[in-house]
Structure formats: structure tokens, C-alpha cells
Amino acid sequence: MDSASTISQWFSSEYHGITSPSSAQCSFYIEADLNGGHIEIYEQPPTALEFSRLVHINRPVLIRGTATRNIFYDLHSFYSQEWKYPLFDSGTMSISLRPWTPTRFLLRLRQTGSILVCALGPSHLVPKFSRADAVTRSLDGKLYFVEPHIEKMKMSELLSKLSRETEDLEIYYLQSQNGNVYSNQFFEGKPDPSEFESLRPDIPSEIPWCSEGLGKSPDAVNLWIGSHNSVTSIHSDPYENIYTVVRGSKHFTLLPPTDGWCLKERMYPHGIWRRSGTGLTLTPSPNVSPIRWSSVADPDIPGKLPQQVHPIQLTVVAGETLYLPAGWWHHVRQADNTIALNWWYDMEMRGMAWIALSFLRGVGDVPSGNDEADVDEGEDDCLQQDSAIVNRGM
């Protein structure tokens, strides 16, 4: 084991409260996971002071129903799973509703006439998951970090495609990630046109206890819509993330920043899915710098993580909000027809938190993901491109 790996694993052990017998601080072995695989649950929203303490501790927290009633307006029935009007119902309805009921939101959603920017990637037969924004093996055997193909369409078209994904060879996901509801332009008092302008009256631009606790406005507010075929590969972000599930559910696999060493980050050439004929083809981007990304395609596969690493497994259902601290690694799956909103707040660059995260990411050299010795053969089920699908138009 090289010195960089030793340092990284020492940080991980200290975080989890695991001390080896050779430690200079003690002469016995301690295995008491101080930070553990548990998650704290709030039945009501934190105050601004409580939230600032949570940010200081840097631990995720699940906030249940009453919390999101504080985020939105009158949501007493917002998260009922009995939908009077299904998501993919067609036609025009004339109904009288209280502010911010699920039916009203879905009706507004269906009637959004703007042109949306949607991401899509090819599906796989086994497993049938989109591999966009992830490491994928090309037909020549080389691994690439591949971004999704982008297309513009109306909301009605997106919802129609999501409803028949079992028949399609492409996976659609609304995931523009650039503040598609509110961007930083809005918070700077500048013009901020949005394809979801009609939804803004129902989506607050800020979370009061979060903005007050951090002393700042969000950097971006995003709307996410997708099916169970959309899987987010494991990664971390420099944001304090407030993530609310509106409909469906999201399953998170969470790891603290100190456990990043076990995700075996590598440098991969950049690629993008491009439409070719009637299919999608992985196209290299020779003018784009290599991308640093985890080589562990699915941390939930048994044996993919070291035995001493215990990720937090958490399902966030409709009506619940996850506070995901900056720097935490997360792999995300979702149920069908899932709708979510999130508020990204820039993490504080002053003080030690940013320095610690930068140190953890900067320890040791990051090898190429295409060095033969570094290729994890067990990942091939997740990484292999299916030529019969993605190149069917060639």
C-alpha cells in the first residue's frame, strides 16, 4: 500500500472511530463507528440555528412530511399516493383546487408548453439502465466518461416517452442541472427565463431555514423527472443539497467524503452520446480534458466496497426531504414516474471544510481508467455498451 492510500484510509478510520492496535494514542483496538451507517430523522424542519449545526457536523438528515409543509405552502394532502388524476392522463381538465395539491402541480406540469431540454442515453438489455453521465466501455474496448445526448421537447412529449420506456431503446431524464427552475441569475436580480416559468408560483426560490442558516441564497433550483431506468452514478458535489421528492421515491447509497478512496477514481477520456440514424453512438470528444470519475459503477453490488466501509442506504419517499451535505458521495436509483426538486447552496469556501475536502481529493496521483491493471472486470455488466442497441442505426 502506498503512502497516499495509507493517508486516505487513516482519515476514513478516524472518521468511523476505528483505531488500530499500533496507534500511538492507545494500546487497544477500538471499533465503535462514531459516525455510523445511521441517519438522523427530523419530524419537523430544523431552525436556522439547528441547520447551521447540521452543516458544521456534515452529516445527512432526513426531514419528514411536516418539514416540506414549511418549504412549500399548504401541503396537508400534497404527498398522498392516491392520485385523482394520473400523471400521464391526457386532455384538459377544469377543476377547482386548493393551492399546491398534487393534482394541481401535475396538471400544471402536463400543461407546460415550453420547450424543455432533456437528457437521454441508450438503455441496456441487462440491466436496462441509462448509462449517461457515467463511465461506459466503447466498442473498441476503451472506457469513456460519457455525457448524455440532449434533445428539446415539450413536457407532454417527455411524459409520453416516460410512460412507454419499456418499449423504447432510449432512456429519457429531465436533469438539466443548471437551475432549470431558478438559476443564479435570478438570485443576482438579473433576467432569468425558465422553461418552467409557469411552475414558479408553486416552487419557492429559497428554503427559509436553509438560506438563513447559511446566510446566502441558493445557486440553483432544479426539477428532476424520470423513471426507474434512470440511475445516477456515484459522485460528490460541492453543494449543500436540499432534495425533496414530490412523487415516487429515490434510493440513495451514501458515503462520507472520507470514504472516497474506496471508489477508485480514475481519469477517463470524455465522450458523448450522439444520435446517428435512429440510434445513439458513443462519440469521443478529443478536445475535452479527461474527466475524473469513480471506477465503481455500482457500489450496491456485493464486494464492490471494502469490508470496513458501511454506506448509508436510504429511501426518500414523496413528502420527505434529504439534506445531503457538501462532499458526500451518492449513488441514486428511483421508482417509476418520480418527480423531485432540489436546492443547491454553494458550500462555504472559507475555513477548514473546503481545505479538508480538497486534501481528501488531492491525496495521491489519479491513474488512467484505461490502464489494463486498473480495469475492474467485475464492472463489465454495468459498463459494456450493447452494440445491437446503441448502434442500431449504423
From TrEMBL:
Lineage: Eukaryota, Fungi, Dikarya, Basidiomycota, Agaricomycotina
Lineage top rank: taxon: Eukaryota
SMART domains, A to Z: JmjC
One protein family per Pfam: Cupin_8
Stated name of the protein: Jmjc domain-containing protein 7
InterPro entries to which the protein is assigned, alphabetical: Cupin_8, JmjC_dom, RmlC-like_jellyroll
Domain JmjC: 181-360
SUPFAM superfamilies, per database record: Clavaminate synthase-like (SSF51197)
Organism expressing this protein natively: Mycena venus
